[in-house]
């Protein structure tokens, strides 16, 4: 008899965005005429930048010729891409990295979900509440979180409430934790931390020998000066942090798949006797065993993001989405909503009117305005009473959605 992994049975029935898709599909069946606008999942709508398309075409041609054909690539990613990542995304911010500290992958979701494998089962993890569900669910699957309690929270997770009172910035844990998931600019609240605020986390991690798993997938959307783009801009972070980055939202790669993770060699976890182990060779070991790398044409496409034309084109795309963010933010404010985020992030976090539950607001918005968003409660108990809209729609749909919210709700 095969035994099921009972940790899977502790998970909500479906992944948040699959549940939303299910409800939308059902609504469409019942209302085939409805002109639905999706501002739910953070999926991009602008096409790939032309520089990327041209580079990928060339790479596909190379793969079709005997002289230039390539089979398996290095699991960690090609040096030509890793060099460009370091030179463009890190050196200008004073962050030096070795080539073998960068691991190219097919997604930040993949990496944030998988990285927990390197930690022992009895580690205590801390997450913001609300939180991107992948950090929690992947640890539930691994059996690290204990049972679910009445608040629909896991007994062994330390939740760090992000509330209006604390400016949606997670407080330091009251008890010692081993693994800390931080995401800035934040998904779902769209908020950021200053260097001083982030430094408190680095100091906490150093004092407690904890590790920060820093998700920076939205760093390209930071508009304000002085907001850190990478945790490695903070002194001492190389000893305690791993950082996840992505081409998905920055360069339209949600359907193309390319991301990378930085694992500095100094980041260490300990065995039961207190002996230190660098996570970098362990992550390499994990990746070489379970992953065969991102396809060559996709890596060539990602490298083209860093060409002068690529940089110009992605700036235009990012500006386009951030103008959507402004339209949503200001439109909602003018309509009397209380809104957060949307300044350094492509997400707008709003308070549901009249203390309405977030799934209730989801249904109302879908039925009355045919607009789809993401219920805050899907990001954890702390998200109840809030709702997320993304700036990744088309301009036309974004304007239409706000107009409908203004007039129909
Ligand atoms: C979101 O909507 O939160 C994102 O699409 C999640 C993701 O990138 O996986």
General description of the model:
The chain is of the alpha/beta class and 409 residues long. The protein has two domains: 6-47 and 309-408, Aspartate Aminotransferase, domain 1; 70-304, 3-Layer(aba) Sandwich (Aspartate Aminotransferase, domain 2), CATH 3.40.640.10. The chain contains twelve helices and 15 strands. It has helices spanning 16-30, 50-63, 79-90, 108-114, 133-141, 195-208, 248-251, 279-290, 296-304, 308-334, 358-369, 395-408; strands at 37-38, 102-105, 125-129, 157-161, 179-183, 211-215, 241-246, 259-262, 268-270, 276-278, 339-341, 347-351, 371-372, 374-375, 386-390. The strands form four sheets. It has a seven-stranded mixed beta sheet, with helices on both faces. Strands 11-12-15-14 form a four-stranded antiparallel beta sheet. Strand 3, helix 5 and strand 4 form a beta-alpha-beta unit. It binds D-malate (MLT). D-malate binds next to loops. Its EC number is 2.6.1.83. It comes from Formimonas warabiya. Substrate binds at residues 15, 42, 109, 132, 187, 292, 388. This is LL-diaminopimelate aminotransferase.
Question: Helical element count?
Answer: 12
What would the CATH topology of the largest domain be? Answer: Aspartate Aminotransferase, domain 2
Helix and strand content put the structural class at: alpha/beta
Strand content: 5-15%
Instruction: State the major sheet.
Output: 7 strands, mixed
**Secondary-structure element order, as H and E?**
HEHHEHEHEEHEEHEEEHHHEEHEEEH
**The CATH superfamily title of the largest domain:** Type I PLP-dependent aspartate aminotransferase-like (Major domain)
Number of domains: 2
Q: Give the uncertain stretches in residue-range form.
A: none
**Cα gyration radius (Å):** 21 Å
Helix content: 25-40%
User: How far apart are the first and last residues' alpha carbons, in Å?
Assistant: 54 Å
Q: Class of the largest domain, according to the CATH hierarchy?
A: Alpha Beta
Domain Aminotransferase class I/classII large: 35-405
Pathway: Amino-acid biosynthesis; L-lysine biosynthesis via DAP pathway; LL-2,6-diaminopimelate from (S)-tetrahydrodipicolinate (aminotransferase route): step 1/1
Binding site for substrate: 15, 42, 109, 132, 187, 292, 388
Catalytic activity: (2S,6S)-2,6-diaminopimelate + 2-oxoglutarate = (S)-2,3,4,5-tetrahydrodipicolinate + L-glutamate + H2O + H(+)
